[in-house]
Amino acid sequence: MSAPGTLAGVAWPRIAGQTRREQLLALLQQFAEAERWPAGLLQQHQLRQLALTVAHACRTVPFYQQRFGAAGYRAGDALTPERLRDLPLLTRRDIQDAGAALRSSAIPPQFGAVHENRTSGATGQPVQVTRTALDALIWQANTLRDHRWHRRDPSLKLAAIRALPPGDADPPLGVTAAGWGAASEALGPTGPAALLTLNADVAVQAAWLRRHAPGYLLTYPSNLAALLAHFARAGERLPGLRAVLTVGETVSAALRAACGETLGVGIEDVYSSQELGYIALQCPVSGQYHVMAESVLVEVLDAEGRPCAPGETGRLVISSLHNHATPLIRYELRDHAEVGGPCACGRTLPTLARIAGRSRNMVRLPDGSMHWPMVGFHRFREIAPVRQYQMVQRAPDAIEVRLACDRALGAVEEAQLGEVIRNALGHPFRLDFAYFEGELPRAPNGKFEEFVCAIPAD
Ligand SMILES: [Zn+2]
User: Fold this and answer.
1) Global pTM exceeds 0.90
2) From ligand 1's centre to the CA of 253, what distance in Å?
3) Residue 354 CA to ligand 1 centre (angstroms)
4) Ligand 1 center to residue 158 CA distance, Å?
5) At a CB cut-off of 8 Å and minimum separation 6, what does 138 contact?
6) Residue 73 CA, ligand 1 centroid: distance in Å
7) Which residue has the higher pLDDT, 128 or 62?
8) How many CB atoms lie within 10 A of CB 296?
9) Span from the CA of 56 to the centroid of ligand 1 (angstroms)
């Protein structure tokens, strides 16, 4: 990546500079300008860059050669919004089935070293995607942009509680590091960091946080919810904490409110995926999510494949502008989001008002229709001492209800809970109750989903 000012295959943003530091500064400078461009100009640049990736895919990726050829697209064709919508969608299933056929036979050497990225897949359907050093460079630039937007003080301590392999940061001590990590330290030194595995008991996590007294806490929303409940019960705060940074799951309005109430700080959320990198950052002014338009082109589509208008919720279809190793073009992520409106901050990057969640978190009724489940949790504790719940839909008419309770429930309590749940879900499902001591188990990647539809999709 040393060509001065240009890199074959990259029209935008420009990769300039000899050192990584110079390249990152050049990218940040371009981000600061592009994020205030008129929307039309931004989209024009996105399509110009995506056309290069699509052409590369048509020429060197067997999967796309076949598929885009059948759709009438030829390498080198210009890309318009309409032309883009004619290209077939790429599903998670396609990625799994295509295997090596989705990988470029001629990854441009100027894109740098190639690395495999295997997603953990909360539903046990991992996908394998190859990325290059260029993707990693843009990932780092977006990390730095996130810090800048939120005016984070890099001299403070960062404490992170995340899913880690056993032995990496075990309780009760976890591990410490001199800095926040390669991306955050790329432009200068940071304060220290401390890392603890998510498997630690919540009381152990809380004691560890009090000991480290971090300026920033990074964790998953579901783990934050458990920590907030603990701190609220204990009547404690974390003096010195400036903000909680969340990743990996959707953040509810209730969680934001609880965080402000219990810890006196806000949540700064990031929407990303392992395959695509950063997708959107929460705006420091409005709380909406701004799309990282210099690296991904995001479409929000309704059931008929038409673009959703502001205020409408649809499925996310995302194209990676630069991945020349495993091109991801019109990748249907199975997440849903609400299209946002113009932002008070003055940034013109496209907005998402809300990340609604994943298709697998929707309940499916026997007639095939799907909706976001309401389960009536606010009423559970009027009936029985339920601490935590999770529901897994096993069949069109049956749902397993997993409960972590202070004690086993009686038949009357179960029947009353069942009535609340069936009413809230809007269908007389058969409910199978299962009881757990302590915390409910998480997926191997550390994520916790309150409602999972486990009926195989497509
Ligand atoms: Zn904004």
Assistant:
1) no
2) 18
3) 13
4) 25
5) 27, 277, 294, 295, 322
6) 36
7) 62
8) 27
9) 33
Residues 5-51 pLDDT 10s: 568 899 999 999 999 999 999 999 999 999 999 989 999 999 999 99
- Cα of 29 vs centre of ligand 1, distance in Å, is 18
Q: Which amino acid is at 290?
A: H
Domain locations along the chain: 136-356, 363-453
Topology (CATH level 3) of domain 363-453: GMP Synthetase; Chain A, domain 3 (3.30.300)
CA of 283 to the centre of ligand 1 (A): 4
Q: Which CATH class is domain 136-356?
A: alpha beta
Question: What's the mean pLDDT when you consider all of the chain?
Answer: 91
* Cα separations in angstroms, 353 against 125, 252, 257: 28, 12, 17
CA of 343 to the centre of ligand 1 (A): 5
What's the rounded mean pLDDT across residues 438-447? 77
Tell me, in angstroms, the distance from the centre of ligand 1 to residue 278's CA.
Answer: 16
- C-alpha 353 to ligand 1 mean position (Å): 10
Q: How far is the CA of 35 from the centre of ligand 1 (A)?
A: 10
pLDDT of residue 2: 42
- pLDDT for the residue numbered 256: 95
CA of 377 to the centre of ligand 1 (A): 33
Contacts of 231 by beta carbon, 8 Å cutoff, 6+ apart: 206, 237, 238, 262, 263
**What span, in angstroms and rounded, lies between the C-alpha atoms of 247 and 139?**
15
Compute the average pLDDT of residues 208-232.
94
Distance 37 CA to ligand 1 centre (A): 13
Query: 154 preceded by cis ω (within 30°)?
Result: no
What distance in angstroms lies between residue 146's CA and the mean position of ligand 1's atoms?
12
